[in-house]
Amino acid sequence: MPSSLESWLDYIEQLHPVKWDLGLSRVAQVAAQLKVEHPGDQVILVAGTNGKGTTCEYLMEMALAAGEKVGLATSPHLTCFNERIRINGVNASDATIVKAFEKIEATRGSISLSYFEFSALASMLIFEEAGVDVAILEVGLGGRLDAMNVVRPDLCIITQIALDHQNYLGATKEEIGFEKAGILRPGIPLVLVDTPATKSILAEADRLASPVSQQGCEYGYQIASYWCRTPENELIEYPAEHLGWLPNTSAAGALQAAQLVGIAPDTAQFQDILNKTRLPGRMQQIPWHGRRLILDVAHNPSAAEYLVSQISKIVDRGRLLAVVGMYADKDFHTVLNLMSTVIDAWYFTETEEKRSAASADLKAALQQEMQPAAGCYAKVATAFEAAFEASEPGTTILVFGSFPVVGTVLDLLQVESF
Fold first, then answer.
1. How far is residue 125's CA from residue 31's CA, in Å, rounded to a whole number?
2. What is the distance in angstroms between the CA of the first residue and the CA of the last residue of the chain?
3. Distance (Å, rounded) from C-alpha 297 to C-alpha 74?
């Protein structure tokens, strides 16, 4: 049996023949034997295409401000697997994760589990054994057939729906929305961050008699305030001197969810949460050797549109150089040409993952007139170094695309290797 976390991760990656083997039959059997279907006094299940991570981060901060012991499970990770499982904002230790893996391995018998199923069960088991008050679980892919959907949620959140993973979830937003709506349960409240609301989600909520809080209706935000409603439908307003660093929709959705489960902050706590909450790789800005670095894991057209809107607000950004790597199964043609409205030069890179798109293919996806300002690199570090060498003080270097690209640059910044 493996001993270190690294060896365990290698083991579970090779264990199951299909990386994304959607379906609940196998993982549900193991979850039932482990008794982890409700791994907290309150369980919040979060699905959606974009905005899951930021919504979860805000909600975790609100739970902490309320004095709750909170477990947060997210995926994928940026720099280390431990990021996927946090209690009170602290990554689970290697030893804790290994202990969970060992228990899952001893329990599963002949049932084969994928890498993500092992990961999801480990987070549930760790939260159950830690006795968390609030367990916040981010769905990995879709919703209806995702491993996290074996839990019994007390509240569901669905964030923005966009075109992504169409091979698994459907070709339209309505089809994708239906898959995300698979996390709903009869009578269990839904906080719907998606706007305008996808009709298939509303139809499923109506069928299940799930009370829905919609952004712009039951809750929302404006220039200097947020508002939400209590379970008794009382309107609560939160003045906000600063609307926050992460997407306003995420803060608003998290605030409504916090109201519904009884962990809402007071106005001073909420402003403090808005002021301090950041998330690595989400419009993350870092001053570095006289340059402005921006890191963002935007990897689908909807996320690219949001990133462009945020960058366009930076009036002093100077020249913008982009280090980009994306997966071959993403719509990188649309993403890159959306981003081209703000980018002056491109540094395309590959990663060691099999899903990585060839840098030459990324360059070829650009419109012809943009290609002369693009270079191709085999490694993220080489692309980032080239962008840095071509920059001058006052330049902005944007790193975006897949998680491994952003995560690699974050690791590089720790060691400042050039």
1. 9
2. 40
3. 14
Contacts with 223 (C-beta within 8 Å, 6 or more apart), sequence order: none
Q: Which strand ranges, in their side-by-side order, compose the sheet holding 42-47? A: 90-91, 85-87, 70-73, 134-138, 42-47, 155-158, 190-192, 212-214
Beta bridge partners of 82: none
CATH architecture of 284-415: Alpha-Beta Complex (3.90)
Q: For 190-217, how does the pLDDT look when each residue is reduced to its tens digit (9 = 90+)?
A: 999 999 999 999 999 999 999 999 999 9
pLDDT tens for each residue of 220-256: 999 899 999 999 999 999 999 888 889 999 999 999 9
> Where does the chain hold its CATH 3.90.190.20 domain(s)?
284-415
CA dist 157 and 254 (Å) reads 9
Cα gap 130→229, rounded to integer Å: 31
How many angstroms separate the CA atoms of 265 and 66, rounded? 6
> Which residues make up the CATH 3.40.1190.10 domain(s) of the chain?
5-276
In angstroms, the CA 415 to CA 157 distance is: 38
Cβ 334 vs Cβ 304: under 8 Å: yes
CB within 8 A of 99, min separation 6: which ones? none
The CATH number of the domain covering residues in 5-276: 3.40.1190.10
Pure H helices in 20-165: 25-34, 52-65, 94-108, 115-130
Global pTM? Answer: 0.94
> Each residue of 157-186: pLDDT tens digit?
999 998 777 676 788 999 999 999 999 999
